[in-house]
């Protein structure tokens, strides 16, 4: 008896899956091995893709890094949207504020943040790379801010509210950087709890609250 | 008439001055050119020191980077002490709190921060370098925290106070990172003003206030 043949996976789906595997491997390589080690060859090996196939998708390292940046940006935006929708379901109050702060801080301690940090730091001395990153980051900053505002259920046209949300994102970024060389999770937990309580207090009585 | 001879600069003073010039050039090279470019040869040229003299002081790049890290640490500690003493002279109140927050944030947007960021980011994927940095950073974190507590004139044994000071340092670190790819000074100014006001409010009625 002949086993039924597997239906053919359409070629473009296979190609898309390979591309995604390469991009995810790039993020892992950047976060774990650092900027210099994240080459097409190393990434291809990590992804279990032949070097030829990898080079078909990304002829140069620059192509790979640029695509990975866009992929990181899309993933962060999508995660941020999903989180925001989930957080809005929590009853308004101190619990929701805390959940929003925890969620923001988590996004800055992720593998994607650690990978992005390698790219940002390299871009500090590479004007061409910087030029590609800056608009993506500015856009992501606006998305994150808007998601935080929606999740908190506050009125961002109030300058105090606007600046407090910005400060929260800056604090989250600082906690992300503090987690790069050591596991900072125990200290971070206490800081996040305090920040959430102080933020909640400061937002009371602001417009929209 | 014979001109009076210049007094001899003692040899060890000259040597110390050369060493310091090399370390300061290392910081500038790291901040401006990035990790990969900060080699003994590039640093020697920037410092106006012969390559031979540079290699006499720092036989390997590792020696140079390690010494530069210690120099950054000492400079940051010294600056932090001087700032703290100056800030303590301001009358206690919202003005002093704002001055303390401004001073902390400035220390995270300095050339030294940008140079240190290059080393931290590289160390994320270099366990030997990380091992050398982590104790220095932990020590500097404690020094910064103590200086901030003294400058604010607060009682750090109160957990809320302790965590608010920590959160302020984390926010300052995040603002430092936000300034690496673009000049973030205009946005930063508004965040710092808001957080200083919120921090001041939150510290009212805490022990020591």
Helix and strand topology:
Two copies of one chain form a homodimer.
Chain A: H1 11-33, H2 40-47, H3 51-57, H4 61-87, H5 94-107, H6 111-123, H7 127-152, H8 159-178, H9 185-203
Structural key phrases:
homodimer; 209 residues; mainly alpha
Structural summary, described in words:
The structure is a homodimer of 209-residue chains. In chain A, α4 packs antiparallel against α5 (94-107), α5 (94-107) packs across α8 and α8 (159-178) packs antiparallel against α9 (185-203). Chain A has a domain at 62-203. Chain A is 75% helix and 0% strand. Chain A has helices spanning 11-33, 40-47, 51-57, 61-87, 94-107, 111-123, 127-152, 159-178, 185-203. Chains A, B: Residues 39-58 bind DNA. Chains A, B: It holds the Pfam family TetR_N. Chains A, B: This is HTH-type transcriptional regulator BetI.
Number of helices of chain A: 9
Rounded average pLDDT of chain A: 92
Helical content of chain A stands at over 70%
Global structural class of chain A: mainly alpha
Q: How would a textbook summarize the main sheet of chain A?
A: none
Order of helices and strands of chain A: HHHHHHHHH
Please report the two chains with the greatest interface, counting residues with C-beta closer than 8 angstroms to the partner's C-beta: A-B, 49 and 50 residues
Can you count the beta strands of chain A? 0
- Alpha-carbon Rg of chain A, integer: 20 Å
- Regarding quaternary structure, what we see is homodimer
Measured by DSSP, the beta-strand proportion of chain A falls in under 5%
């Amino acid at each position: 008896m002949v086993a039924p043949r597997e239906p053919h996976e359409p070629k473009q789906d296979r190609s898309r899956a390979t591309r995604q595997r390469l991009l995810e491997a790039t993020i892992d390589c950047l976060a774990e091995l650092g900027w210099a080690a994240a080459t097409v060859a190393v990434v291809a090996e990590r992804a279990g893709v032949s070097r030829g196939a990898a080079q078909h998708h990304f002829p140069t390292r620059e192509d790979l890094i640029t695509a990975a940046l866009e992929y990181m940006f899309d993933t962060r935006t999508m995660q941020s949207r999903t989180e925001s929708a989930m957080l809005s379901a929590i009853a308004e109050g101190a619990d929701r504020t805390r959940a929003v702060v925890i969620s923001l801080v988590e996004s800055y301690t992720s593998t994607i943040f650690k990978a992005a940090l390698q790219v940002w730091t390299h871009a500090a001395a590479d004007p061409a790379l910087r030029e590609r990153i800056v608009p993506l980051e500015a856009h992501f900053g606006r998305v994150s801010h808007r998601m935080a505002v929606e999740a908190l259920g506050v009125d961002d046209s109030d300058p105090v509210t606007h600046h407090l949300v910005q400060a929260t994102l800056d604090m989250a970024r600082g906690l992300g950087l503090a987690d790069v060389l050591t596991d900072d999770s125990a200290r971070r937990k206490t800081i996040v709890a305090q920040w959430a309580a102080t933020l909640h207090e400061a937002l009371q009585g602001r417009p929209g609250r």
